[in-house]
Structure formats: C-alpha cells, structure tokens
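Need the bound structure for magnesium ion, inputs here:
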Amino acid sequence: SSWMVARRMRAIGPWRLKGNVVRGFQRGSKQLGWPTANLDPKAFEHDLDQHAEGVYVGFAKTKDDQVHKAVLSLGWNPFYKNEQRTLEAYIDHKYDADFYGAEMTLLVCAFVRPQQDFSSLEELVDAISADISFGLAQLDQEPWCLFRHDDIFSAT
Ligand code: ADP
Ligand code: RBF
Ligand code: MG
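Answer from helper R.:
Posting the output first, comments after.
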C-alpha cells in the first residue's frame, strides 16, 4: 500500500520528446485532483518501447512557453487497467484554462518508482501527492535542475 512506496532518483536518458497534448479519460483533475497533460502516443510509442512503466520527473514546456518542473507517469495505470499506454505530465504551473491540442516539449531525466496498483482511490491519490512533493523538491537540486536549460527548450 502507499506507505510502502519507495522513491529515489535514478538518472535515465534523458528522453527528449515533442508532441501534442491529447485528451485522456479526464480522471486526473476530476478524480485525483492532479491534472496531467497527456502526450500524443505518436510522440513516444516507438522511442519508449523498452522503458519501464513508472513515475518519472523532468521538465515541460507548452502553452505558456515557459519551462516548468514536471512529475510524469508512463504506463498502463494498473489501478485503472488502461489498454493504451500513456505518458502524462503534471506540470508545476497554474494554468487559467485547458490546453488540449497545444504542442508540448518534455525532457525526462529521472525514474522515481514503478507504477503500482492500489487498493483504494485514496491510496493512489496519496501516492501521487507524495510523488509530486518529492519530485518537485528533487528537481531544484543538481544535477536535475540543470536540465531546464537543455537545448530542446531553446529550439524554435
Ligand atoms: P485527461 O485525462 O484528458 O488528460 P486530466 O484530468 O488529466 O484529463 O486533465 C488534463 C488537462 O488539464 C491537460 O491536458 C491540460 O489541458 C489541463 N491542465 C491544467 N493545468 C494543468 C497542469 N498544471 N498540468 C497538467 N495539465 C494541466
Ligand atoms: N496510476 C496507477 O495506476 N498507478 C500508479 O502508481 C500511478 N502513479 C502516478 C504518479 C503520478 C505522479 C501521476 C501524475 C500519475 C500516476 N498514475 C498512476 C496515473 C493516474 O492513474 C492517471 O494520471 C490518472 O488516471 C489520470 O489519467
Ligand atoms: Mg491526463
């Protein structure tokens, strides 16, 4: 259950991805309180085939053109048993409106934990909340904070 979830930063890639924000099942904001911008599967389905389902961290640039910290989830969301794999980013920024269709650039620099199933929605929400506070604090530290200056974010 959620109190047994171990989190640590393990460097990966980094992966650099660019695609559009697509619609999901709309569960992120409504059921969980944490909206996630879902990347168009076309932008990652081949590149990330060999990579583990899990919670990751990195940086995102979309609608507002600024680079923000992001806590991401890659996989089939075992709690919901999705049939399609998703790559979803909770972005550390307060947006006034949804931005479906916008281009999103992601740099993913560390793996935090595997995705897991939970016995209640409350446990899933607690785990996600803890991932986000852990991830955002880590991303302020070196070496992770250096990735916000990656070339992928300056390309026009
Ligand atoms: P869906 O299942 O369609 O992805 P969500 O409930 O996860 O629905 O909501 C995600 C949408 O909310 C994003 O596509 C984006 O347009 C919007 N959004 C607003 N604020 C944020 C944020 N801080 N991080 C990610 N998405 C956000
Ligand atoms: N879904 C799961 O089924 N298991 C998980 O362990 C899990 N961890 C997540 C961690 C974070 C930081 C985020 C943002 C999402 C996570 N999800 C997980 C995905 C979650 O189920 C999904 O965002 C919602 O269903 C909305 O699409
Ligand atoms: Mg989402």
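Comments: The first strand starts at residue 10 and ends at 22. The helical segments are 27-32, 121-139.
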